[in-house]
Amino acid sequence: MNSSRTLRRAALACALAAVASAAPAQSTSVPFKATVQVTDKLSFGVMTCPTLVGGTLTGTGTASHLGAVKMQASDCVLPLMATFSYQFFNGSLTLIAANGDQLRAVYQGELVPTAIGSPIYRLQGVYSIVGGTGRFKNAQGSGTLSGSEDLSAGLTATGQLNATGTLSY
Length: 169
Fold this sequence. Notes:
This protein is mainly beta. It has a single domain, classed as AOC barrel-like, CATH 2.40.350. Helix content is 12%, strand content 61%. The protein has one helix at 2-22, and strands spanning 29-44, 53-63, 67-80, 85-97, 102-113, 120-132, 140-150, 156-168. A hairpin with a 4-residue loop joins strand 3 and strand 4 (85-97). The radius of gyration is 23 Å and the shape is elongated.
């Protein structure tokens, strides 16, 4: 009878160990930072935007936990003529690591001129990480966007986008 009880305890211990090892690992929130050199192309007649004005951004840079990245993004744009600024919303951004893993985020914010008549605009906004692929499949996080864009070339701007916040994956 004592050996029967010992066998049951051993079986229970094995079952608990199997369940514990099969449980998903807890993700930890870590600091996240990205710096990307961007090209931002403004387009009119974008049917997916309520303003019919949209931006398409591409770029390259670096991001913590990804290394060297390529970036693809799109957003809707609302020009604010009274302040010569722009609001961007419904933004969707993907960072692509060298190994192909992707980190996806949604974002919104604004571009504000650094001075009256200046083609240099200050970028500020917020983002939320909404998943990805590979090791970022269930990624989450959020933070702030900052940077600048030079709008002197008309419908194609160049600049730098910075993201600072947290990431869990």
